[in-house]
Design brief:
- By secondary structure, the protein is of the alpha/beta class.
- The chain has a single domain (2-193), classed as Maf protein (Alpha-Beta Complex).
- 42% of the residues lie in helices and 27% in strands.
- The chain has helices at residues 10-18, 32-41, 46-63, 90-100, 136-144, 148-154, 174-178, 182-193; strands at 2-5, 22-25, 70-79, 82-84, 104-115, 118-131, 167-171.
- Strands 1, 2, 3, 4, 5, 6 and 7 form a seven-stranded mixed sheet that branches.
- Helix 2 (32-41) crosses helix 3 (46-63) and helix 4 packs across helix 5 (136-144).
- The longest helix has 18 residues, at 46-63.
- The radius of gyration is 17 Å and the shape is globular.
Length: 194
């Protein structure tokens, strides 16, 4: 069974590949910042923002691809119920790491399937992460290991790469933290095929 992944994330595509899910990538090209800002202005929680972004991406691509399941996904960081956005520069990335330093925060991963322009299933998974206590020099050294394009695309830590060294503990599913709650996706696809 073939699906479409409405995401630019190479990591999400790799997760699907690892589980033998045939997915064609089609970018949604939605303005995520505009959607986030609009939702924040309405007082939306980070969880609701993640869910809405996954749905908007999925529905937009689904409208142009009839009769094919389209998977949209989004992940956000919540620190004390405040949304932490992806950095737009190395300086911003450093400030985000300083905020998360020695703190417990949540990574919220949402996914959504749409068919013929309508959402037909969604799921949100929340993982708890506690960052170790680093000094500024250590944070800068960590940032120096990450290429700028990766940092700006995927955020301040990559659990699948050097990011593991940042954490005191991680409570949650590894695939979900990397961007896709794959077990729930597989369960849905199995039911859908019946």
């Amino acid at each position: 069974m073939k699906i479409i992944l409405a995401s630019k994330s190479g990591v999400r595509k790799k997760i699907l590949d690892n589980y033998n899910i045939d997915a064609e990538v089609v970018f949604s090209n939605v303005d995520e910042d505009e959607i986030k800002n609009s939702l924040l202005a309405e007082g939306a929680s980070p969880k609701l923002i993640s869910k809405n972004l996954a749905e908007v991406k999925s529905v937009k691509v689904s409208k142009n691809n009839p009769n094919i399941l389209v998977l949209g996904a989004d992940s956000v960081i919540s620190l004390d119920n405040e949304l932490i956005n992806k950095p737009k520069s190395r300086e911003e990335a450093f400030e985000i790491l300083k905020k998360l330093n020695n703190s417990k925060h949540y990574l919220i991963s949402s996914c959504c399937f749409s068919l013929n322009g309508s959402m037909i299933w969604n799921h949100t998974d929340t993982s708890e992460l506690k960052m170790k206590n680093f000094n500024e020099k250590q944070l800068l050294k960590y940032l120096g290991k990450i290429k700028t394009e990766i940092l700006l695309s995927y955020g301040v830590y990559q659990v699948e790469a050097d990011g593991m060294e940042l954490f005191e503990y991680i409570k949650g599913d590894r695939d979900s933290i990397m961007g896709l709650p794959i077990k729930d996706i597989i369960n849905y696809v199995k039911q859908y095929k019946k």
